[in-house]
User: What shape does this take?
Amino acid sequence: MAIIERTRVPILAAAVLLSSVSGQPLCAATAPLSASDFRADANALAGLIQSNYAYLDELPGGIVPTSPQLNDERDAVHDADSLLRYAEDMITALADHHALTGKSFGDDWAIVPSYADLWITRSGTAYVVEAVKEGSIADRAGIRPGFTLSMVDRQPIDQAVAAFWSRIGLQPTAERQAYAALVMAAGRRDRQRVLTFGTPAGDRTFLLDNLYQQRADRPALTVTSSNDLTTIRFNNSIGDLSTIAAFDRAMSALPRNAPITLDLTDTPSGGTTAIARAIMSWFIRRPMPYQMHQLPAEERETGVVRQWVEYVLPRAGKYHPGRVEVRVGRWTGSMGEGLAVGFMAIGKPVCGTRMSGLKGAVDDFDLPKTGLRVKFPAERLYTVGGVPRHQVVPPQCRRVRQATH
Assistant: This one.
């Protein structure tokens, strides 16, 4: 999940409503919402996605997924809960971890990668643990890369994946299979996970808390030094504007030529470009391009492509001439990935593993009658060289890094 820094007025849904402190929509008129209002928003949702979703061409047939089950669910919408359930299912149909709704139910699946500690990939017919988040519940329980996920809540994984998609009437394509397995391994928000894995010692079943049940307060940054190398680790904090001041303080305290490592391996929730640009600005002397954007909705509406390059600019009195290296991993997500390609663009080494692979830049869209918010990628993002950002894979990090003075 990315933390959004703007709300776009959707091309096919122009009315944006205010929200109260409690998160409930407030209409311009005081009249209560009617069943027809909720149904109108349900009917508007597919068109909203069709006009604005940046990766429409990557969906089967290049259209918003639909099915008799989804159509029946849409036609039955009559109140806030039924609209939210339908919106969740339509967002799920995109099989895109960067898409979600602004509200949720208590028993919903966990948001991936923010509340995931296992990265599951499909290899042949098997669902394999590619990565385990360091220090997480799954890590402490002894789950290791290479294990194969065989059961979820005591149901065989193939059956669980098929049921995940058949409930909304969609076929489990390869992309959908991988999406469902990753989501189910993260579990539901209101209960423990029961996951069975094939291991070198045989099948093992683990009872695991979900990550919603373990939320410790942490500082924005953790700064450590060893062997003349300083590591600045971002604690999933590049969506918090106070991180700019914290990073500025940390950088100002370093010796002028100190080598540093920026650890982005725990930034699954992404963040904002303002924070990313503030971080990168410490390592440049002149304006430099770091990321390219494209807005498909405008091309669909006008037939004219809109594309632009975003720049990072120096900030007065803030420059570090020492060597910097950036580390990333599977829990480097969204703007974390933007930072990675940005540092590559300004000529700084980036290493690690595959990142979260979250597509595009997420915008908020409010449905016109009820104000229910949905979030999904509306801009395509690329490296300055034109490679889709979510496809970038950095080189592996060396096991031993020598500090450079």
Notes: Residues 1-29, 400-405 have pLDDT under 50 and may be disordered. Residues 50 and 64 are 6 Å apart (CA to CA). The first strand starts at residue 18 and ends at 19. The radius of gyration is 22 Å.
